[in-house]
Each structure stands twice: as structure tokens, then as C-alpha cells.
From TrEMBL:
Residues 1-26 form the ENTH domain. One of its GO terms (molecular function) is 1-phosphatidylinositol binding. It comes from the Eukaryota. Transmembrane segments: none annotated. One of its GO terms (biological process) is clathrin coat assembly. Belongs to the PICALM/SNAP91 family. GO terms for cellular component: clathrin-coated pit; clathrin-coated vesicle; extrinsic component of presynaptic endocytic zone membrane; synaptic vesicle. InterPro entries: ANTH_dom, ANTH_dom_sf, AP180-like, ENTH, ENTH_VHS. This is ENTH domain-containing protein.
Length: 136
């Protein structure tokens, strides 16, 4: 159990760090067409998305398989992470959509950063789908 408790603790620490950096809880922010991530300007978006990426990485590092979810403590931590993963994915996805909509209006260095963020987004979506298969 201690391994999974440490991994869950790492996620909570990363979530607290994210809150300190941007003063927003990504799992509780307004979503949709007029949501926070959809209305954010380019510069702030390029600074905010890596913070979401770090939080999502900490969440995905839990790495439990279905056989290990028989323990009540591990299962509870996994369920809390699962709930956060859905909300975090929604915020991350909306931010990337906003970034891609603004891509052709960006400066060259912003385009490089945006492309790097998008490549990392694709990699994390693969890891997230594996996480969700375990949850299934």
C-alpha cells in the first residue's frame, strides 16, 4: 500500500503546487465555450498548459493494475484520481483546443511552444486511455 499512498501523495503535492502557481483548481474550473481555458489569451495559455501537464503526469504515475485494486485504500485513492482525471482532461483538452485555434495568429517562438505542448498532449492522451482502461 505504501507505494500507492506515496504516488497519491505526489499527485496531491502537484495539485497544491499547481494551485499556488496559477491560483486555480483545474478540476473545479468552469468549462464550455465561455469557460476559463477557452477564453484565455495565448501567452497565459502557453504558461498554464505545462502546469496542467505536470499535474496530469503526477496523476498518471499512480500506475495501478486491476489486480492491485482489491485493497480498499488503493481502490479509494484510485477512484479519487479517476474523478480528477476526467475533470483535468476536460480542462487540458479545452486549453489545447484554444491553443490550436490561435496557432496561426502566434509569433514564431509561441508556435514552437504550442507545437511542443500539442506533442506532449498526444502522448498524455495515450497514457490517459491506459489509465481509463484500468478504471473500466
Amino acid at each position: 500500500m505504501s507505494t500507492f499512498i506515496r504516488r497519491y501523495s505526489r499527485y496531491l503535492n502537484e495539485k497544491a503546487m499547481s494551485y499556488r502557481l496559477v491560483a486555480v483548481d483545474f478540476t473545479k474550473m468552469k468549462r464550455g465555450v465561455d469557460g476559463v481555458m477557452r477564453t484565455m489569451n495565448t501567452e497565459k495559455l502557453i504558461k498554464t498548459l505545462p502546469i496542467i501537464q505536470n499535474q496530469l503526469d503526477a496523476l498518471l504515475d499512480f500506475q495501478a493494475n486491476p489486480n492491485e485494486l482489491t485493497n480498499g485504500v488503493i481502490n479509494s485513492a484510485f477512484m479519487l484520481l479517476f474523478k480528477d482525471s476526467i475533470r483535468l482532461f476536460a480542462a487540458y483538452n479545452e486549453g489545447v483546443i484554444n491553443l490550436l485555434e490561435k496557432y496561426f495568429d502566434m509569433k514564431k517562438n509561441q508556435c514552437k511552444d504550442a507545437l511542443d505542448i500539442y506533442k506532449k498532449f498526444l502522448y498524455r492522451m495515450t497514457k490517459l486511455s491506459e489509465f481509463l482502461k484500468v478504471a473500466e
